[in-house]
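Pilot study result, target chain (166 residues):
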Amino acid sequence: MSGLQVKRLKCLLLGLFLFGLTASATGETMVNHSFSFDARHDSSDVEVLDYQYGDGTQFGTHADRERVALGQVFPADNISGVIPRGDTLYVKWRDKHSHHVYQDRVDLKNRMPMDIKDLRVHFLIKGSQLYVYLIYPGLKEASVPKGPVRMYEDQKQVQIYPDLPK
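Predicted structure:
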């Protein structure tokens, strides 16, 4: 190995070590998955005022506090990669017609499978009701009906909140 290769290897190992320390320090499980919403297309009758997936320490998993304080709305967000697995989802929104403000906090611990690698946690809102879906990678089988999340209509979508009637 040349000196340059040794230096690169040391940098790589140091980076992996620091990444591991960060994951341990947060106490959360880091897993490759996605979190998203798109109120412009999925929930055009509402404005998202605030949201937080998990503890909100990871950029892209929570609303910007300054923008929340200014009363700005959040039309969409999307983050993918190795991010903390969220055990909760908090969303606050306003109905554009009635101007009524709603909020909901969902405990996701028992609603998601243990292995969420490569899955997408996606929410949408219809009036006063928050809906949370798991979107699976790849194309769905032809026999599986299209889901309500238009952007991912060709992928398998499983509603995890609210509970489906039995």
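One observation from the pilot: Residues 11-26 have pLDDT under 50 and may be disordered. A full batch analysis is planned for the follow-on phase.
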